[in-house]
Structure formats: C-alpha cells, structure tokens
Amino acid sequence: MHQYNVGAPFERVAIDIAGPFPRSDQGNRYLLIAMDYFTKWPEVYAIPNQEASTIAEVLVANFFCRFGIPRKLHSAHGRNFESHLLKEVLKRLGVSKTRTTPLHPQPDGMVERYFKTIEEHLRKVVASYQRDWDERLPLFLLAYRASTHDTTGLTPAGLVFGRELRLPCDLLFGVPPDKEQPTTDYAADLVDHLHDIHNYARQHLKLASDRMKTRYDKLANSAGYDEGDRVWLYRPTRRKGKSPKLQASWEGPYRVVTRINDVVYRIQKTPRSRMLVIHLDRLAPYHGTA
Prior knowledge:
The protein is of the alpha+beta class. The protein is 36% helix and 19% strand. It has a 5-stranded mixed β-sheet, sandwiched between helices. A 5-stranded antiparallel β-sheet has the order 9-8-7-6-10, with no helix packed on it. It is globular. It holds the Pfam family rve.
C-alpha cells in the first residue's frame, strides 16, 4: 500500500460529487464535497450539475481563493474529474492531480466516511425539506468543524484557526473563565499554539496511517505481477434478463503492460484494445493456455 502522510493544512485535498438529489428552489441537484487531509476541514458546495466547467469554477472561486492552492488534489475516478478542462486549470495553478482506481475506494477511507456522514444527514434533511435542503448544510458543517476527529484527536477548526469555534451554546451561556484570553496574549500565543497542535496532529495522522498500512499490507499480494503476465480481470456486469448472481464476473485473459506502482497496473486484452488502469485487488492469475 502506498503511504502518503500530509504535514500541513491544505497541502492535500480530496474532492468528490454526491447526488443527484431533488432539485432545490435554487436549481441545485448535486454536492461538490471537499476535505483537507491534514485538518479534516470540510467544505460542501451545492451545484446545479456535475460538469467539469462547474467543478473547476467552484473550486477556484470558493476553495482555492479562500484556503490557497493545494499541492495535490485527489478525486474519485470519474469523467468530470478527468476532463481536459479541469486538468488544464490544475496544471496552470501548479496542482498535482491524483485519483482512485475504479471499484477500489479503500485509499480514500477518510473521504468515504465523511461522505457517508453527509449522506446520512442529507437523507434526514431531504425527507423533510425537499426544496431547500441546500440551505440547511451550513449548520451541519458548523457542527462537523467543531467536533473532535478520531484520527487527529482535535477539531478541524482548532487545527485551522488555532482556537475553537464559538457555538450557539457559548453565545447563550458565555465562555468559561479558563477559555477567556486577553487580546494581547492571544496574538502572542497563537503561533506557538498552532505549532503545537499541528505537531500533535502529525503524530496522530502518522499513527493512523501506519495502522491502515499494516492492515492493508497483510491482505495485499506483495509479489504482484510482472509485465507480460496474463491475468483475469474482475469486471461485474449486469445483463438484462439474467440474474446478477449467475453472471460471470471475471473476464480475460488480459496482459500486464505496465506496473505503475505496487498495487496499480495498466493492462490490455488485445494489442488493439483500450488499455485499462486497474488495482491489484481486481486481478487474479490466469493459468490457461489460450
């Protein structure tokens, strides 16, 4: 398993699309979701469609201009994220683009869990508010940003701002005396505090990453395949009129063209067929003679 440990806020950001949802009064049907790998800071943007031009415009105007340009942008495997337009925009901004492989979302566990949390929340919201669900996201984001994250042991707001967000209960009952701080002291202590909590987060992120890598490597086939090896490809398809359980899920043989890294391969069925980029989990050795 390839391991990537981020070391600073908004250095590496993940994005994905959720939807479609019922069309809101503002004409929105989808959500563009973004999350910073280091701080776990979430952003959600309601959008009318999932075209590449819409995604690029929202990312630049709302995310990049607010939080700065990330070094890496990671996305799911989708045509809108792999379009020439988005690639050109990111290239001009100096952003390196990475993506998951099809049918293999495990490398994006952080974002997958976050998406599930949002979808669970939206199911409750959409059930009661069919026309203005997109206007009810900000309060959800407030709660998420102020909640302690399991991986870092800190809140996203604390890692980004060096302080906790003032929540409605604080406005109602006031802040405890031990949380109050004179303005002059706050300015002097902010840099030191950010430095300390960022180091704390790095340690927790490294531990979580190491645990994930250890679990993954136990399951992964360390030997892998070499160029020229023939393999089966797991590619389940639904055919009309046939039970999915009775359909063949493996096809081949394919030939390994390139070993991109430890777990990702480029394969091809025939010399004239299209090459596919596939994760190791979807391959199996081919022992036939044909």
